[in-house]
Amino acid sequence: MITSDLKTNLNNSFKEMISHIILNSSVRLDEFHASVEDEILSIEFDIPLSIDTLRKIEFFEGDKLLSECSVFVPVNGDTLFKYRVEVK
Questions:
Q1: Domain ranges of the chain
Q2: Are the C-beta atoms of residues 49 and 73 closer than 8 Å to each other?
Q3: Which of 14, 58, 77, 83 is 20 to 30 A from 20, comparing alpha carbons?
Q4: Which is it for strands 64-74 and 33-37: parallel, antiparallel or unpaired?
Q5: In the chain, what's the furthest Cα-to-Cα distance?
Q6: Is 57 exposed, middle or buried (CB count within 10 Å of its CB: 0-12, 13-18, 19+)?
Q7: CA dist 82 to 6, 21, 57, 64, 75, Å?
Q8: Per-residue confidence band for 79, with pLDDT thresholds at 50, 70 and 90
Q9: Which pLDDT score, from 0 to 100, does residue 2 have?
C-alpha cells in the first residue's frame, strides 16, 4: 500500500518538475497553475483560441517529456482546463 504522505510527496515533486506544457504537439504553455490538495495534483491552464479540439497534453521538464495524455475535448471560446493527477 502506498501511504497518503508518499502520494502527496510524489505529486509535489511532479508539480515542481513541470516547466511547461505542450498542447496538441505544437502549442507551448509557460503559464499554468498547479496545486496539491490531499493526494491530488491539479493543473489548470487556459486553452488558446487557436485550438478548436484538444487532443494531446504533454508535461515537460526542460526538454524532457515527463508525462503525456491523449484526450478529446472540443473547445468553443475561452476555456480554462483542469487536469487532475492522482497517484493510486
A1: 4-86
A2: no
A3: 77
A4: unpaired
A5: 43
A6: buried
A7: 23, 13, 11, 22, 13
A8: very high
A9: 87
